[in-house]
TrEMBL record:
<comment type="similarity">
    <text>Belongs to the N(4)/N(6)-methyltransferase family. N(4) subfamily.</text>
</comment>
<dbReference type="GO" id="GO:0016491">
    <property type="term" value="F:oxidoreductase activity"/>
</dbReference>
<keyword id="KW-0238">DNA-binding</keyword>
<dbReference type="InterPro" id="IPR016024">
    <property type="entry name" value="ARM-type_fold"/>
</dbReference>
<dbReference type="GO" id="GO:0015667">
    <property type="term" value="F:site-specific DNA-methyltransferase (cytosine-N4-specific) activity"/>
</dbReference>
<protein>
    <recommendedName>
        <fullName>Methyltransferase</fullName>
        <ecNumber>2.1.1.-</ecNumber>
    </recommendedName>
</protein>
<dbReference type="Pfam" id="PF01555">
    <property type="entry name" value="N6_N4_Mtase"/>
</dbReference>
<dbReference type="GO" id="GO:0009307">
    <property type="term" value="P:DNA restriction-modification system"/>
</dbReference>
<dbReference type="GO" id="GO:0032259">
    <property type="term" value="P:methylation"/>
</dbReference>
<dbReference type="InterPro" id="IPR001091">
    <property type="entry name" value="RM_Methyltransferase"/>
</dbReference>
<dbReference type="Pfam" id="PF13646">
    <property type="entry name" value="HEAT_2"/>
</dbReference>
<dbReference type="InterPro" id="IPR011989">
    <property type="entry name" value="ARM-like"/>
</dbReference>
<dbReference type="GO" id="GO:0008170">
    <property type="term" value="F:N-methyltransferase activity"/>
</dbReference>
<dbReference type="InterPro" id="IPR017985">
    <property type="entry name" value="MeTrfase_CN4_CS"/>
</dbReference>
<dbReference type="InterPro" id="IPR029063">
    <property type="entry name" value="SAM-dependent_MTases_sf"/>
</dbReference>
<keyword id="KW-0489">Methyltransferase</keyword>
<dbReference type="GO" id="GO:0003677">
    <property type="term" value="F:DNA binding"/>
</dbReference>
Length: 459
């Protein structure tokens, strides 16, 4: 087996030694290792021997031959790379050929890259755009790239939007890590839509909530499923507005069943997480992850009793042991690192997630049952979401607070909370916890009506 040191010696001896080695080597693994470890190539390096590998049956050998050609500044390889970008049978080799064209930074590559903007592979198109952006001040390049804002592929459109159409965002008057004092550790009783009209743009860092399920509980009755989705759409648009740039929204939902009216009729199942998703994307949320909350089978309603007895096909009904935590981020041109850099080092260090964190998107957590509220967040579920998606001192929002578990957990983790709850029964239930729960013992926690909240805002 050859070594990296041996490869360095061959390069030092020159092309003659390299060609003798290559011609005398028949094993693909050895050739591949050699190509992978060629490393830096000087501009005057003769790469003509690499052309012999461009038709090799091994796609990895072709890939590395192309990658090494891209390290050179020899414009005689431009047309060759262009042909590979258009015709190679392996998509990764094609994309690398486009990337190599761009890395040469040769003005003569522009025409080849223009041609590749019509490719059917959007990743090839994005690589071509990347290569052309080296010449972003060139009027001809701008005239060719800007119309791609209407390209059918969303990745292509997002790149062009960021480069040519993104508006400079006005800096928020409030520093990113901060939040308004009048929003900290309060519970407001009222319609969340009315309450949020009194909350400024970009005021909160994280929202974690589970909306009322469509007509599955007595506390959530809507005229139709369409009305229910439109209600959630209205609420989550406001949540988007008040969320700080690039921060997260985690939505806990699951499909629900509306029981049948009688044995002569069927029950109806509604796929809430999948039906609300398009609304969220349209309003400016970017989908990040889907997390599965897995419960013990003994803790859920048994739908399998009938099938257990008759075992007839078509009648199978699995027990629903999962719910979804759909993770969204407020769309921004800035990367996550920008959000992190807004905090001082001590806050970042103190907020680091400890060892033993969940590494998969399946979270095995037992549900919690409450004598007053029929759908309560487990504390462990809240802990993970708040730890993974916020910093200490952040403001955590739950528009459908229920029994207040999000607020309780946020405060225990040294975050602030802002809760809204329409149902007066649950609002009063949270207020009663003043005498029983550590959450509401602190004097700064306030329970407000909508009118009181508005007055507090204006003080």
């Amino acid at each position: 087996m050859i070594s990296k040191e041996y490869i360095r010696e061959l390069k030092h001896k020159g092309n003659g030694a390299i060609i003798r080695f290559v011609n005398g080597t028949k094993e693909n693994n050895t050739i591949l290792y050699f190509l992978e470890n060629l490393g830096y190539l000087p501009k005057d390096f003769d790469g003509s021997w690499l052309l012999n590998f461009l038709n090799n049956k091994n796609n990895q050998i072709r890939f590395w031959a192309v990658k090494n050609l891209g390290k050179l500044s020899d414009e005689s390889y431009l047309s060759t790379l262009s042909e590979i970008a258009k015709k190679d049978s392996d998509t990764s080799v094609r994309r690398e050929a486009v990337s190599s064209l761009g890395r040469m930074r040769n003005p003569k590559s522009k025409e080849y890259l223009f041609d590749l903007l019509n490719d059917e592979d959007p990743k090839v198109v994005c690589q071509a755009i990347r290569g052309l952006l080296v010449f972003r001040d060139d009027k001809n390049v701008q005239n060719v790239l800007k119309p791609l804002i209407n390209h059918p592929n969303e990745m292509v459109k997002s790149v062009i939007y960021k480069e040519y159409f993104s508006e400079t965002k006005t800096e928020n008057e409030q520093p990113h890590p901060d939040s308004y004092d009048y929003l900290k550790n309060i519970v407001v009783n009222g319609d969340v839509r009315e309450i949020l009209k009194n909350v400024p743009d970009e005021s909160i860092h994280l929202t974690f909530t589970s909306p009322p399920y469509y007509n599955a509980r007595d506390y959530s009755i809507y005229p139709s499923y369409k009305d229910y989705l439109l209600f959630l759409n209205e609420v989550f648009k406001e949540v988007h507005r008040i969320t700080k740039e690039g921060r997260f929204f985690i939505l806990n939902t699951s499909p629900i069943i509306i029981p049948r009216v009688s044995r002569a009729h069927s029950s109806k199942r509604y796929s809430i997480p999948f039906d609300i998703h398009p609304y969220l994307i349209d309003m400016g949320w970017e989908f990040i992850d889907d997390i599965i909350w897995l419960k013990p089978e003994a803790s859920v309603k048994n739908r399998n009793a009938g099938f257990l007895q008759h075992r007839k096909p078509l009648g199978y009904k699995p027990n629903a042991v999962t719910e979804y935590l759909m993770v969204y981020r407020k769309k921004t041109e800035k990367l996550l690192d920008w959000n992190i850099r807004q905090y001082d080092w001590s806050t970042v260090k103190e907020s680091k997630v400890e060892d033993g964190y969940e590494t998969t998107n399946v979270w095995k957590i037992d549900p919690t049952f409450d004598k007053v509220h029929s759908a309560v967040f487990p504390v462990e579920l809240c802990k993970r979401v708040i730890k993974y998606y916020s910093f200490k001192g952040d403001l955590i929002f739950d528009p459908f607070a229920g029994s207040g578990t999000v607020g309780e957990t946020a405060k225990n983790l040294n975050r602030y909370f802002f809760l809204t709850e329409k149902d007066e029964k649950y609002f009063n239930y949270m207020e009663q916890k003043i005498h029983h729960k550590s959450l509401f013992k602190e004097k700064e926690t306030s329970f407000l009506t909508l009118e009181q909240f508005i007055k507090t805002k204006n003080i």
